[in-house]
């Protein structure tokens, strides 16, 4: 702005003074929104991965339980047909009782509900339902047996404490022969083996898995010495076996992801540099405006003094050309400036 330019109106001048600050505020808001959106996108991606892994785990558990049901139905007629087990049947039972399948014991019952046999074998007192026997060792839930016999399909019983501080649950599989039920095969599951041993190593490295009862108490868990992330957790019903059991999967707190951290730090650093640059520019503009105001006042004051003089004044450059004259000189010569 030159000395001869008119000053802008006060309202416009105030807006022009506030414009850099408004632009800076909008820029910082945009940077904060970008950092927040980046973090939210990263959290959503991790949560989507968590849900996908949990659904895979649910399908894998259901597949293993359904597979065991089919095998128990297939081996049931062999168990109930003869009083003594053949070597082939014992081998099939041994393959079903491996820790990977989660089965801790297999019992076969008569149509009346009496225990015909078990693998591993029961103690004599337990085999005849001695009242002094440990109830957890003969896990025959009468209501589940009646329901399975009534609907003719496998029925899962509730989880219950077992010796050694673990929890068991049972699947009651009706055995049919010529459209008539000939008995029941009961598969006793160790809850910790079902949930923990069937999980692959990569799932155990990423997530903490726990089974909660209907009261929210942890009855089985696969633990790792690592803190869990409070923001990445997912709960789902554990059905089968059901009966209020819940699977809770929480992601372990992973190591810092340096790319988002470096990106955010770079954006913050850039924003700081821009803020500092704008502040320095504002200070320089303020000093320049003060100098211009002082120069304008000095020029006006000097011109007023020169125009009030009666003595003519003129100025020449090195080549002899007139560069300035005052009002008195113009009046003396009759020429305008």
Search tags:
337 residues, six-stranded antiparallel sheet, Beta-Lactamase, alpha+beta, four-stranded antiparallel sheet, single chain
SSE class: alpha+beta
In percent terms, what proportion of residues is strand?
A: 15-25%
Order of helices and strands: HHEEHHEEEEHHEEEEHEEH
CATH architecture of the largest domain: 2-Layer Sandwich
CATH class of the largest domain, named Alpha Beta
- Mean pLDDT rating: 78
The CATH homologous superfamily of the largest domain is named PAS domain
Our Rg estimate from Cα atoms comes to 44 Å
Q: Using the alpha-carbon principal axes, give the shape.
A: rod-shaped
Strand segment count: 12
Helix content: 40-55%
The structural domain count equals: 2
Euclidean distance between termini CA atoms = 23 Å
Point out poorly predicted stretches: 125-137
CATH topology of the largest domain: Beta-Lactamase
What does the largest sheet look like? 6 strands, antiparallel
- The helix count comes to 8
What does this structure look like?
The protein is α+β, with helices and mostly antiparallel strands. It has two domains: 41-252, Beta-Lactamase, CATH 3.30.450.20; 256-337. It has eight helices and twelve strands. The protein has helices at 10-81, 87-96, 124-127, 142-151, 191-197, 201-206, 258-308, 327-333, and strands at 103-109, 115-119, 155-156, 160-162, 166-177, 180-190, 207-212, 218-222, 228-237, 246-252, 314-316, 322-325. Strands 1, 2, 3, 4, 5 and 6 form a six-stranded antiparallel β-sheet that branches. A four-stranded antiparallel β-sheet has the order 8-7-10-9. A hairpin with a 5-residue loop joins strand 7 (207-212) and strand 8 (218-222). Helix 1 (10-81) packs antiparallel against helix 2 (87-96) and helix 1 runs antiparallel to helix 7. Residues 125-137 have low confidence and may be disordered.
């Amino acid at each position: 702005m030159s000395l001869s330019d008119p000053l802008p109106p006060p309202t416009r001048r105030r807006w022009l003074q506030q414009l850099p600050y408004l632009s800076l505020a909008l820029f910082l808001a945009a940077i904060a929104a970008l950092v927040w959106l980046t973090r939210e996108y990263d959290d959503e991606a991790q949560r989507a991965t968590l849900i996908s892994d949990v659904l895979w785990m649910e399908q894998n558990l259901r597949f293993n339980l359904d597979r065991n049901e089919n095998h128990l139905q297939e081996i049931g007629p062999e168990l109930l047909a003869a009083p003594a087990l053949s070597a082939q049947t014992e081998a099939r039972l041994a393959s079903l009782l491996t820790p990977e399948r989660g089965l801790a014991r297999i019992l076969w019952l008569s149509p009346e509900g009496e225990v015909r046999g078990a693998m591993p074998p029961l103690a004599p007192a337990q085999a005849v339902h001695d009242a002094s026997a440990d109830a957890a060792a003969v896990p025959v839930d009468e209501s589940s047996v009646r329901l399975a016999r009534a609907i003719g399909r496998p029925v899962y019983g509730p989880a219950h404490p077992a010796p050694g501080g673990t929890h068991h649950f049972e699947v009651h599989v009706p055995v049919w022969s010529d459209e008539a039920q000939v008995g029941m095969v009961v598969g006793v599951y160790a809850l910790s083996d079902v949930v923990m041993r069937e999980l692959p190593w990569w799932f155990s490295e990423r997530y903490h898995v726990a089974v909660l009862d209907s009261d929210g108490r942890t009855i089985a868990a696969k633990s790792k010495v690592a803190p869990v992330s409070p923001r990445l957790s997912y709960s789902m019903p554990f059905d089968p076996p059901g009966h209020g059991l819940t699977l809770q999967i929480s992601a372990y707190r992973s190591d810092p992801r340096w790319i988002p951290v470096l990106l955010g730090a770079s954006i913050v650093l850039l924003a700081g540099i821009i803020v500092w640059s704008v502040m320095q520019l504002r200070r320089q503009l303020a000093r320049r405006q003060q100098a211009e105001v002082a120069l304008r006042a000095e020029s006006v004051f000097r011109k007023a003094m020169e125009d009030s003089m009666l003595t003519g004044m003129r100025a020449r450059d090195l080549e002899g050309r007139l560069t300035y004259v005052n009002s008195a000189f113009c009046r003396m010569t009759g020429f305008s400036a």
